[in-house]
Amino acid sequence: MTSSFTQGPTDPTVQPVPAAVVEKVDAADTTLHNPQRAVLSLGSNLGNRLETLQGAVDALEDTPGVRIKAVSPVYETEPWGVEPGSQPSYFNAVVVVKTTLPPSSLLERAHAIEEAFNRVRDERWGPRTLDVDIVAYADLVSDDPKLTLPHPRAHERAFVLAPWHDVDPDAQVPGRGPVAGLLGTITREGVAPRADLELRLPE
User: Of the residues 39, 71, 173, 189, which has the fewest C-beta atoms closer than 10 A?
Assistant: First the structure.
C-alpha cells in the first residue's frame, strides 16, 4: 500500500536556521573553491542514538572542505529489510552540506566517522551504531560499484526522502525526479517524525 504525500503547512518540527548561521555558513563557503552540494543520510539503532547522530553531524562539520548547510528533523524508523521486532528502531536524519571534497574523499570521511562510532559491518541489514550514506552529490549520476550516485535505494526509502524534503522541499534525486513526487509513490508506514528530538547545527 502506498500513501499519498500532500503539501501542507510548514512542519512544526523543522527549526528555521537563524540568519546569523546562514550568513556564517555562506561566508565560509567563499573559502571553498568550487563547492558542491551533497546530501547525506544518517542512521543509528544501537546505543544512544540521538547522541550518535549529533556526533556524526559535528564530525562532518569538523571535516576540512565541508560546511553544513542544513540538518533535518529526526525520524524514528522501523528497520529496513529485516523481520519486524528483530532489531531496535532507528533514528534517522539528513544533512545537506557544501563540500570541496570529491565524492570518493567524502565517502572515506563517512566511513571514518562510522568507524569512530564503532560501526561493525558483519551482517547485511544488521543493526549498527551509525550509518552514514552519501545520498546525492551535486547532479552526479554514477554506477561506480564503490559509490553509486545517487544512492541506489534512496528513491524508495521514506526515511531518506521525508527528512530530505523537510530541509529542501524543491530537492531532486538525480535521474529520479523531485523528492516530493517520489514521496507520493511510497509508503511512510513505520517512519515517524520525533518532534521531541532535535539535532543542533554546529556553531
Answer: 189
Question: In angstroms, rounded to a whole number, what is the distance separating the alpha carbons of residues 18 and 71?
Answer: 12
Of 49, 109, 131, 166, the active-site residue reads 131
29 classed as catalytic: no
Structure pTM? 0.80
User: Measured between alpha carbons, how far is 35 from 30 in angstroms, rounded to an integer?
Assistant: 9
* Residue type present at position 95: V
Catalytic site residue 157? no
| Residue of 133, 166, 168, 188 with catalytic role | 133
The catalytic position among 37, 119, 176, 194 is 119
Q: How far is CA 38 from the centre of its chain?
A: 10
The residue length of the chain stands at 203
Sign of the CA dihedral with 195 first, then 163, 4, and 89 last: negative
- Residue 109 falls in the annotated catalytic set: no
Q: Which of 49, 109, 128, 157 is catalytic?
A: 128
pLDDT (tens digit, 9 = 90+) per residue, 60-109? 999 999 999 999 999 999 987 666 666 889 999 999 999 999 999 999 99
